[in-house]
Amino acid sequence: MSDSHNFFDLTGKTAVVTGASRGLGQFLARALARAGADLVITARDAEDCAAFRAEMAALGRTVVALPLDVRDPASIESFADTAMDAVERVDILVNNAGCNVRKPSVDITWDDWNLVLDTNLRGMFFVSQAIAKRSMIPNGYGRVVNIGSYTTVAGFAGLAPYCASRGGVRQMTMALADDWGIHGITVNCLSPGWFKTEQNKVLYEDTEWVEYLCDRIPLKRPGQPQDLDGTVVFLASDASEYVTGQNLLVDGGISTGATRALPKKRGSRTAPARSP
């Protein structure tokens, strides 16, 4: 490569982004498209992606919207086959589809657990497998970006299935990186911290909770979707060629521990008393 090579340029690459009917999935797909990538976007009902597909096509990108239910193995196989019929190859896979059930652990049902784990972990594995087998392994190239969360490294009351699933995503990311590195495929986990999404927006209606949260974040604010743009492009591009098996936290620093070890300052700072 010449010195002038733009390592972040995704022109000529095709990216699959699952769960792109709303929220972070659309922000991630938009970042990739602006970096030059063509897109295959998915939702359980592909029509839910119609407006976003038109927006991305207006950027001059080729965009295919396909139905995908990551909990259904037949849907995964059908999606993968249709995607490969529609595009020459898949270079980038962003596994974004996910869900959550927010309940005290004693109230979690068998179906609650299965919904979250099947969507966030099992589905992610089999979508990755389907795309790797059909395109990335035969072509000797791939960038897999698994969307995790701060719960890959921390646990929270009321989120037991979700924390279990995201912890599993982190471990699966390392296993697939080891498994597929020989094929020129990198597999990494992008883990946002506290971002306002459809899944957690109720929390942000509590101003006291938001103040508590911001006090624990070194950068003193929750994440904004655009905060993920540079990271997802990095992990999808040649810039991350020697980065694999990693869990990259984009969390404003809350994973540092973010527990105050000094008394909270109140009012103006006073000068220390002088010795007589």
Explain this structure to me?
The protein has 276 residues and is an alpha/beta fold. The protein has one domain (14-251): NAD(P)-binding Rossmann-like Domain (Rossmann fold, 3-Layer(aba) Sandwich), CATH 3.40.50. 37% of the residues lie in helices and 13% in strands. It has helices spanning 23-34, 50-57, 73-86, 110-139, 160-180, 207-216, 229-236; strands at residues 14-17, 38-43, 63-67, 92-95, 142-147, 185-192, 247-250. It has a 7-stranded parallel sheet with strand order 3-2-1-4-5-6-7, with helices on both faces. α1 (23-34) packs across α7, α3 runs parallel beside α4 (110-139) and α4 runs parallel beside α5 (160-180). The longest helix has 30 residues, at 110-139.
Notable traits:
7-stranded parallel beta sheet, Rossmann fold, disordered C terminus, 276 residues, alpha/beta
Give the SSE layout.
Elements: E1 14-17, H1 23-34, E2 38-43, H2 50-57, E3 63-67, H3 73-86, E4 92-95, H4 110-139, E5 142-147, H5 160-180, E6 185-192, H6 207-216, H7 229-236, E7 247-250
Parallel strand pairs: 1-2, 1-4, 2-3, 4-5, 5-6, 6-7
Helix pairs in contact: 1-7, 3-4, 4-5
Spatial extent as radius of gyration: 21 Å
Q: The biggest beta sheet, please?
A: 7 strands, parallel
CATH superfamily: NAD(P)-binding Rossmann-like Domain
Q: What is the CATH class designation?
A: Alpha Beta
Number of strand segments: 7
How do the strands of the widest beta sheet line up side by side? Answer: 3-2-1-4-5-6-7
Number of structural domains: 1
The residue-averaged pLDDT reads 91
